[in-house]
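REQUEST FORM: STRUCTURE PREDICTION
Request ID: SP-0412
Submitted by: Lab K.M.
Chain count: 1
Length (residues): 261
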Amino acid sequence: ISGKGRIYGIYNSTGEISVEGTEINIGATNANATAQAIYNKKTATIEDVTINMNFGKLSNIQAYGIYNDSSLQGIINIKDIDITIKDGNSMGGEGSLLYGLYNTRHSTMIIENENIEIEAPYCYKSASYVSGSTAYGIYNDGNISIDEGTIEVSANGLDAYGIYNYTHGTIVTNNIDIIAEHENDDNYVTSTYHAYGVNNSGTMTLNSGTILVNDLFSPYGAYNSSELTINGTEITVAQTGATTTYSSVSSPSGATTTDKG
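STATUS: Completed
RESULT:
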């Protein structure tokens, strides 16, 4: 599917839908497009599905591998899903927003074995600002549980988040491997934007798994401003081009981070 404006691969409005053994390919022909490979408002079961989204060098794209709407308190059960999103925004103007999984408030995702890869390799610079794409492996403001999987995100210029858990969000992960990279193109090196393994302002529990973050400036393995519990997760953070590799968990004043080894 390729088009302009709003683009939907599958749109589930008020019913129940089952998607199995399916490949969905999404592109766009113009800038300023909003694309959802799967958009769910009610109840969906998704198994053995591959999603590919590629937008070339178009600017101001909003891309969602799966968007789970809150208007009818959407519930999605996901098993064995692969999501790849690629965007080469380098034309200036507004940057793009790329989401592997987007779960809104009051919605629920139950996930078993997901693999998400988001690449945003280009950026645009001027004398006063930098533009590119912000990459989110998972954005959550509802309820998510995840068993097994990988998340790999990279952005150049703007931020890269493995998991971004917002204020009302609750996430429990089991054995998830996350790689987040902020590439800092030679054409524009900025300390304003970063790579985050996880960024939590809700409630999050990480059980086992690994987090690897690379960034030239201030990489964050885990950034917490609310309630974060870490159980046996290996966190490695590296400053690109530097020789130091170290673990990092950051919690501002008033936040709670519990590391249980």
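NOTES: The first strand starts at residue 2 and ends at 3.
Reviewed by: T.R.
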